[in-house]
Structure formats: structure tokens, C-alpha cells
Amino acid sequence: MIPITVVDVRDSEPLVSEVLRSGAIAQGPMVARLEAGFADVAGVSHAVAVNSGTTALVASLQVLDLKPGDEVVTSPFTFVATVNAILEAGATVRFADISARDFCVDPDAVTAAIGPRTTTLMPVHLYGQMADMGKLAPMAAEHGLSLVEDAAQAVGATFAGPMHAGGTRSCCPRACPACRGCGCRPSSPTARTCGTSTPCWSPRMLSSPGTNCPPG
Hints:
Layout: H1 13-22, H2 29-42, E1 46-50, H3 53-62, E2 71-74, H4 80-88, E3 92-95, H5 107-113, E4 118-122, H6 133-143, E5 146-147, E6 158-159, E7 163-164, E8 168-170, E9 190-194, H7 201-207
Parallel strand pairs: 2-3, 2-4, 4-5
Antiparallel strand pairs: 1-9, 6-7, 8-9
Helix pairs in contact: 3-4, 3-7
């Protein structure tokens, strides 16, 4: 059998041992290092590490304070976690068809799907390539909609120059080009990114439930 990916952790073993010896298993300096490096790769100001791609999507939607009946337009060609995240956030899923060119959501179909209850667009980037953000980003701005990108399969991808795949990304080895729709296993390290100049306190608070202050 030809494996989808080959995971080589030899260079990471000393770092794993360092974390285990530190006693800081859930947070700590190594997580902060991962977040800083991930933000740099993504070309954004902040990244918040959480336990899975599903959690990253849910947190990204929860900070938008969606109400029952609010609609999130997304792709039907995706892993079920995309839909589950929308439902868990209390919103309604509205599908827009995909393009035969790249299998990502079709901007024309998104335009047709936008209705009076639409609050958010959630394009899904597939197979290492981004959806047509050159059309989707201005569309969201024109209609006053939030934009959350499911970028589990597009870490480090760019679109027409400096635009990076933003939103949520999975480091799961099975969420990769030539693999299934999107999403990752619950144990997969994942980052939720944003490009604001101020810290992402809301998603960071969601990543550390039970605390009353943002973790450092």
C-alpha cells in the first residue's frame, strides 16, 4: 500500500521529551512557540492552538455570537466536521455548490445562496489549493458577512500573492492534499488564526475553558 503521508518525528523527539519533563502538557512555552511559528507561516498576527480542527471551527464561529436561524454558507464537498461545527455553534447550514475546476465552493453559487439570514461565509480549501478568495473575500465585505476559512488542507497556501489561507488549519497528517474532504482527528494539533493587531482573547479564552484570564 502506498501511504498518503510518511510521518518522520525523529527531529521532534527531543522537543517532546522537553515538554514531558517541563510538566506543562496543555499550555506552556512550547505551545506559545508553535503558535508564533504558525502565525508567521500563515502571515497573520495571532494563532491559537486547540485540540482539533473541529474545535478551531467551532471557536471561530462562537466568537461571532451566531443566533438560531443565522445561516453559514459553506461547501457540501467537505468532511462532516465543517457542518458539525456550524450546527454546534447554533447556526444553520446553507450549501453552495462546488466548482468543477478546483472542487472548492463556487463563488457564483455562493452569491445565489446568500439570503437575509446569512451571516457568515465558510469556504473550504481543498487539496493544497485555496478557494477563489479573490471573489469570496470582497463578496463577504460587500454583504457585511463574516468570513471563516476551513483551511485544514491548505496550510501555507496563498492566493494571487500575499493572501494566505486564514481561519482554521489542521496539522493532522490525514488532512492533506489528495486526501479526504477536511477536518482532522480529535488529537490533532490545530491552530485558529486571525490577522488583527490585538490579541485574539475570545478564541483564546475558548481554548482554555474554566479560566478567567487569557493564558500567556
